[in-house]
Specification:
The chain is α/β, with parallel strands linked by helices and 231 residues long. The strands form two sheets. Strands 1-10-9-6-2-3-5 form a seven-stranded parallel sheet, sandwiched between helices. The protein has a three-stranded antiparallel sheet with strand order 4-8-7. Strand 9, helix 7 and strand 10 form a beta-alpha-beta unit. Helix 1 crosses helix 2 and helix 2 packs parallel to helix 3. The longest helix is centred in the N-terminal third of the chain and has 15 residues.
Length: 231
């Protein structure tokens, strides 16, 4: 579909989860310290369970988040809770750097995340999702401060998506920006369902990343966006 995108189609969810986890684990092999950014939502859960079985140096692997919902610590709807339940619970050596800092504010948490970014290796892998509106991370089309996040040179920004139906009921978000995505060496997009594939096709035909922010995830000189899809 696009020279900076590689689509892997799978007939069922089992083969899809195994193939995606295997590819992500392969990308994290290497002598240098690796950094992996993960997404929330229901789609990646089976992939994370498979990934937890991979023979990686989990004690040296740094885990972070692509985005987070601004909710109280421990809230079941936070993205870090999904990662804890489906990956960390199965891989006790793994450690996750939270994006939303307890007792803080969205602005201060973003400031801390951007400072942490400067002190650690650039992400080796980012695992992404996409909504039917074409958003990835928490870059929701129509968000009132989306333009500011899209134009930012910092890796993370806060997003007020209160006007975006796809973001409800979690309006306040912390998210990678396009600048942050641009530093991720390899990007994996996990999709399920024909509707998601149709959205991606429409986004590619439009060529308009401000209307379809998923286009900011397309591959760069380090390699194509790896899309893993099943019905």
């Amino acid at each position: 579909m696009n020279h900076s995108l590689l689509l892997h189609r799978h007939a069922d969810s089992t083969g899809w989860a195994t193939a995606a986890a295997t590819a992500i684990a392969r990308a994290l092999q290497g002598p240098q310290r690796q950094r992996l950014l993960l997404s929330g939502g229901s789609t990646p859960a089976p992939v994370y369970r498979q990934l937890a079985q991979a023979a990686l140096d989990w004690g040296q692997l740094e885990l972070g988040l692509v985005d987070e919902r601004w909710l109280a610590a421990g809230d079941a709807n936070r993205n870090d809770r999904l990662v804890e339940q489906h990956l960390l619970a199965l891989q006790p050596q793994a450690r996750l750097q939270a994006l939303a800092q307890p007792g803080s504010s969205p602005a201060l948490s973003v400031q801390a995340a951007n400072a942490h970014w400067q002190q650690h290796p650039l992400p080796t892998v980012a695992v992404l999702g996409m909504g039917n509106d074409g958003h990835t991370a928490s870059l929701f089309p129509g968000a009132r401060d989306l333009a500011q996040a899209l134009d930012s040179t910092a890796p993370y920004a806060s997003i007020d998506a209160g006007d975006c139906p796809a973001a409800q009921p979690f309006a306040q978000r912390l998210s990678l920006t396009p600048a942050g995505l641009g530093h991720c060496q390899q990007r994996f997009l996990l999709l399920r369902g024909n509707d998601k594939l149709d959205t991606l096709t429409t986004a590619l035909k439009s060529g308009n990343p401000r209307h379809y922010p998923i286009l900011y995830a397309l591959g760069s000189s380090t390699g194509p966006l790896q899309v893993f899809w099943c019905p």
